[in-house]
Amino acid sequence: MSDPAGSIALRFFEGALWTTARNLLQVALSLVALTIVARELGPTTYGLFGVAMLVYGIAEMICGGAFTDSIVQRRQIEPGHVDATFWLTTALALIAACLMAALALPLAALAGQADAADIVLALAAVLPLAVASRVPMALLARDLRFKAAAQIGAAATIASCTVGIILALRGGGIWTLVAMEALRALVTVVGAFLAVAWRPLARGRLRHLRDLWRFNAGVLLTYLVGYADLHLPRLLVSHLLGTQALGIFMLAIRVYGELSRLLTEPLHGVAMSTCARLQDAAAQMRRSIVGLYGASRLVVFPLYLGMAAVTPWWLPPLFGEHWLAAVPATQLLMLGGVRLATGAYNSAILLGTGHVRATALLFAAGCAASLLAFPLLASWGIAGAALAMLVRQFATWPLAALCIRRATGLGVADQLSGTLAPLTAAIAAAGSIWTLTRMLEALVPAIPATLIAAVAGTAVYLGLLHLLAPRTLRQVRALLLAFLRRDRTQLESLLASPA
């Protein structure tokens, strides 16, 4: 009979694959919608919406996510904990929505663009809807029901992107983006409540909130610092370079983020749940983290570096020549994939193991790095802003490695093990992609040239991996074959292996 830790590792693997399938659909649809919407709206409008989202995002984070992670992380939970969390977040969302509506103009001005006040007002109406889905989605994560969560996310993306494309083509302007956010929130909350048996009742008591308060207070602080770390670059660009520059910078971040959603979010989405369930099985948790890092490097390194190589040939044809300034920024951000391959999971691992303060410390270090780097590099424009993002990512790497070691017992050398082979192969593949694209651009259109080069680069990458890390390729092949055959016994055996 399989051990509980092995069973959790199996559900982690299956959950990651389900989330990958969902995100593949989401990224494909999002990029189609982004291409059409960005071409129709232009950088200035896109930047204006970005300013409004700064205000909306912090309200949604404080009211929702900061109080629902405890449902996932806590070992033992009662119905009263869940009910109390739901009614607390609902009340906070209604209060925050009223404050957003009343203070829309000063909030938009504080974020860098007073013209975004009407958008802030509209997003205030969306806020309670978005927060309402947080508790049922947390219950799905706690139960490791990643397939259901994947289906909900896919449905929300399909609905949002479809409406966005229609409205953009019909001249909906900036309200296209507002409608997309509203529909995404609506579909998510309906799907989340349909997926769980729990319904909000009056079982919550003050003691339930007290039980969760210590963890929630730490998470709230962490989320506040994390939100500042995430959005401080946009705020700095808005104030230092203006709204149009912010729009261009946001497009580069969006492309970078969509690739991250496809490659790292599937594993991030299940890492916290898995680490929380494996808190009493430290050796298995460390093996899972090493496997997580290894799997991430195998796909993140080649795809991010490959995208950096071909960005000059595909971005302007897709989005239009008025987005040309986003090319160097996107390329620089893509180089951050080297750090993202492991850094994307820091907060999930630390929160899953209950090390909330360490997560806040990492985010605070990121804020400090941004505050130093952005003003220094702002004179280089959008490219300087992207370079500042890159500096911020790599500057916090040593601190992150030490925090993970303290939280899990996984040494720094173990965290870095297995990096050299995929990184070497990915650099060689990206170089071959760039070289071949340059050779083909005079013969075929830009996008087909990049596709041909990408196929050749993939062959280079797999060939070098076969030479440098043959055992890794064999294990990946065995895992995928076992999953396709639905051989759970073989999957558990492979996932429990120290390799």
pLDDT averaged over residues: 83
Shape annotation: globular
Structural class: mainly alpha
Termini gap? 21 Å
Q: Helical amount among residues, as a percent range?
A: over 70%
What's the number of extended β-strand segments? 0
Give the number of helices.
Answer: 22
Number of domains: 1
Strand content: under 5%
* SSE succession: HHHHHHHHHHHHHHHHHHHHHH
Which regions are unreliable across 5 or more consecutive residues at pLDDT < 50? none
Q: Sheet with the most strands?
A: none
Supply Rg. 22 Å
What does this structure look like?
The longest helix is centred in the N-terminal third of the chain and has 70 residues, at 4-73. It contains 22 helices and no strands. Helices cover 85% and strands 0% of the residues. The protein has helices spanning 4-73, 79-102, 104-111, 117-132, 134-142, 146-169, 175-195, 206-241, 243-263, 265-277, 282-319, 326-335, 337-343, 346-352, 356-377, 381-395, 397-408, 412-416, 420-440, 446-468, 470-484, 488-496. It has one domain (4-417). The model has no long low-confidence stretch (mean pLDDT 83). Helix 1 crosses helix 11 (282-319), helix 9 crosses helix 16 and helix 12 runs parallel beside helix 16 (381-395). The chain is mainly alpha-helical.
